[in-house]
Amino acid sequence: MHSFRILEHTADVGFEAFGETRPQLFANAARALTSLRVDLDSVAALEPVKLRVQGPDLPGLLVNWLSEILYLEDAEEWLFSSFDFSAFEETSLDGVARGERFSPARHRLKSLVKAVTYHQLAVEKKDGVWRARVFVDV
Fold first, then answer.
1. Which residues does residue 132 pair with via DSSP β-bridges, in sequence order?
2. Positive or negative CA dihedral for 5, 138, 62, 27?
3. pTM for the full model?
4. Strand ranges, E, within the chain
5. Could you report the per-residue pLDDT of 8-18, keeping only the tens digit for each?
6. CA of 55: how far to CAs of 86, 102, 109, 116, in Å?
7. Residue 107 · residue 43 · CB < 8 Å
8. Among candidates 11, 20, 4, which has minimal Cα distance to 117?
9. What average pLDDT does the segment 58-71 reach?
10. Which residues are CB-contacts of 70 (< 8 A; sequence separation ≥ 6)?
């Protein structure tokens, strides 16, 4: 099973993320989001950043989770490559993102992601595998 794949769409960019568990799905979705911005192999999981996110339901939690990652990447110049969770519920999670600050010498930006959207958002479990489809504004 792949952890994620990028989806090309006429006017949008998105991804599908996969996981055997919901935490693995959310970690792979965050890695997919970061991969839209930079090469994941260039991001070292050096420093931990604690995150607490809430949402109205599982899809909303995913959007809020990814939006928090995006905010930290934009506002505080973080790049993350590793994600772990100490608590994970249907509408809330506590986790740690590990990464490093953006360095123009080490990280080449691919694209600017403006926002995570609800457009064609899907989170489902099928045949024992969790899958999420997410599109972003670029």
1. 17, 123
2. positive
3. 0.93
4. 4-8, 13-19, 47-54, 78-88, 92-101, 115-116, 122-126, 129-137
5. 766 678 999 99
6. 17, 28, 29, 14
7. yes
8. 11
9. 98
10. 33, 113, 115, 116
